[in-house]
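Researcher: Let's run the pair from yesterday's discussion. Sequence first, then C-alpha cells, for each.
Model: Starting with the first of the pair.
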Amino acid sequence: MTELGPETSADRTYVIDTNVLLYDPRSLFVFHEHDVVIPITVIEEVDKFKKDLNETGRNARQISRNLDELRGKGSLSKGVPLPGGGRIFVDHTSNDSSIAITWGAENNDNRILRTCVRLDAQSPGKIVLVTRDTNMRLKCDALGVAAEDYEHAHIDIDEQYTGWVERTVPPAWIDDFYQSGEGRLDPELFVGLHAQQFVLLTAEGNPSKTALGRIDIRKERVRMVGRHKEGVWGIFARNKEQLFALDLLLDDSLSLVTLNGVAGTGKTLMAIAAGLKKVADERIYTKMLVSRPIFPMGRDMGFLPGDIEQKLNPWMKPIYDSLEFLMSTQLDGRGGRQSSAEPQYQQLLDQRMIEVEPLTYIRGRSIPRQLLIVDEAQNLTPHEVKTVLTRAGEGTKVVLTGDPNQIDNPYVDALSNGLTYTVERFKDAAIAGHVTLRKGERSELAELAAELL
C-alpha cells in the first residue's frame, strides 16, 4: 500500500489518469514539488496501447520507458524522487474491494476512483485526480474527492489570437502610408502587437479613412497589404481576413502560416490556390504536398478496399474537390473544357507537382523546398504538430489550416489541439503569420448553418 506519511512534504498529491499519460508522456514531471501517484490499473491500461502504430502507441511506449528509468532509481511502490522535488509512486491497491463504489459494473474507472478515495481518507483534502475525462471528474466530485483537468495541455490565453487588430492613427500617418507603401512602427501607436500581425488603420476623426497594414518586425515597419486584384488561380479575396490570408500565403519570406476559422471561410481553398501559384506558375517550390490526419466524422466505415490510392481517396476527397474547383475555374477563364474522363488535376499529379497523402508516414522524413499544406490540423496533438514542423527542410513553407471547434480526435479539445498550440507559440516569431477567418463565403446556407447550429 502506498503510504503518504510524514516523509511527504508536498502540499498536494496528484493521481494521474490514463488519458493524461497517453496525451503527454512527460506529464509525470510537470507537478514540481508535489507527489504523483500512478494506480496500477493505469499501467495496465497503458500496456494495451503499447503495440499501436500511432501517436497513442508511441506515447504508451514512452511512458513505460519513463517509469522503467525511474524504477532504476528506487522502488516505485515506496516512492522515487522526481526532478521537481516531489516523489512518484505506483499504487498497487487499485482494486481495494473494501471501498464501495455504488454505481455501474466493475471497471477500471472505478478501480482508479477507489485509489483516490482511499488516499483521500489517509490525507484529507490533499488528493487530486488529474484526468481529461469529464465524467471521471464528475464522479470524483460525487465521492467528495478533488479532480482537475490536465491544465498543462491547455494554452493559457485570455483571448484567442486572431492575427489582426484595429488601431487609430493620425490622418497624416495614413497619407504617408499610402504614398510610400509602408510606415514607421511607432511604439506609441502600435504597442503590444506581435510579429506579422495585421492592423486595420483608421484615421482619427475620420472613420471612413482606412488602410490595411502588416507588422514587419524584422525591419520595424508597417507594410501595406497587397490587394491581389488579379486573383490567385481564379480566387479573389471577398473580405479583409481572406485578403490577410492571401498576403501571408504569397509571402515567400514566411516559413509557417496558420489559418483557422469556421467551415466555409476558404482556408483550404486559398491555401491550395496559393500553392498552385507558387509551384505551377512561379516554380518557387519543387512541389506541393497536401496532407491531413485521418479521423472519421461519426461511425467509421472500417477497412477500405483497393490499393493505397483507392483507400485514401475518401479521406482526401475534400482536397481533390478544391483542386477540381480551382482547375475548372482556370479552364473556364481560358475558355477551355475538360477533354477526358480523368480529373482535371490529374496531369499535375502525374507530373508530381502535387502529392496528396496522409500524415501517417511523415515521421522520419525530410521535406526540402516544398510547400506542405496540412488540412484539418485541429485534430493533431501538439507533439504531432511538432513532428510535422520539424520535417521542414531548407526552403520549405508549412501551412496549417483547421477549425478548433470541429475536432474528431478524442485526445484533444479546442484549447489543447496542435493548431491552437502552434498559433499561440508562434505569434511572436518573425517567420510565422496567422489569421482567423470569421466570415463564411461558401454559400449563404453554409454560413447560416455555421452560425446557428
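Model: Moving on to the second of the pair.
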Amino acid sequence: MMTNVTFMNPEFFWLFLLLLPAIAWYVIKRKEQTASVKVSSISGFKYKKSFVSKLYPMLFVLRIIALSLILVAMARPRTVNVSNKTKTTKGIDIVMAIDVSSSMLARDFKPNRMVALQKVATDFVEGRPNDRIGLVFYAGEAYTKTPVTSDKAIIISSLRDVKYDATIQDGTAIGMGLATAVNRLKDSQAKSKVIILLTDGVNNSGTIEPETAADIAKEYGIKVYTIGIGTNGMADFPYALAPNGDFIFRKMQVEIDQQLMRNIAAKTDGKYFRATSNTKLASIYDEINKLETTEIEELRYYDYDEKYRPLLWIAGVILLVEIGMRNTIFRSFI
C-alpha cells in the first residue's frame, strides 16, 4: 500500500519531536500512575504482579501509535501513476544516398568502408524512431533501394544488404545519386527534408552534373549533408579480380572531391564532413542526428491515489480500543 509514496505536507513530520518528551515523561512518571500504600514491611504478604497490570503500559503504547498514524496522515501520503503519450508534431524526411562502388571495399576502415558504414547508418536509423527514412544506392548509376518510409525494420534490413553489386556499372555518379534522392523527397510534406550524401571518390559517371542536382535540391528546399569517406593518404583498394573471383588489393591514393562536397552542402544550407576512421564516421552521424531534431509533443497524465484515509481509520480504531480498555479492563488503575 505504501510503495513509491510521496508526501504533500512533509513538514508535519516535525511534530514527531513532540512525542519524544511525552514518552520520556511517561517513562519517568509511570510508577506514579497507580495508587500506592506505604507499609513498614511486606514480609507477611504474598505479592504477585497480575497479568493485567503488566499490560497496562500498552495503553500508552497504543495512544502513541495512534498519534503517530495521525501525524503521518497529516503529512498526506499518496502514490502517483504517471503515464506518457507522445505525438510527433513536426517530422523529418531523410534520404541516405550511399556510394556502393567497388572503392567502398577499401580497407582503410575496419573491416572496410562499406561494412563500417552499415553499422553506423543502422545506429542512425534506430535513433530516429519518429522520422521517415529512404535509401538510394549509387555507383556508375543510381537507384532507389527503399522509398521514404516510417518502417525502420525495412530500412535496417536494406542496410544489411549493402554490398558491391557487379551487375550495375561501376564508377561514382554523385550527380545521379543526389538527383535520385531529390526525386524521392520533392513531393514530401514534411517540415524538413534532408539528404545525407556519402561518397569516397570523385564524380566520374552519370548524365547529371552534381551542381545541377544541388540546384534542384535547393529549389525544393532540401538540405544536403555531404560526407567524404576515406583516410588521408594511401589505402588498400580493390583493382582486379583473382581467378577465384576475389578482389586483389593494392595501395592507391585516396581521392575525394572535397570542394564539390563543400559546394553542394553550402548551396543547400547543409554541411560537409570528412570521415577518416570508423570513430570519425560514427561521430559525424551523431552530429547530424543532433542537428536535425524532431519536435515532439509529450502529454503526461498523473493519477494520484491518496493514502491518508486508511491511516486515519486505523488510528481511530486504535484510539477506540485504548479508550475502551482504559474504561473497562484497566478502570481500577489510576
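Researcher: Give me one sentence on the second I can quote.
Model: The mean pLDDT is 86.
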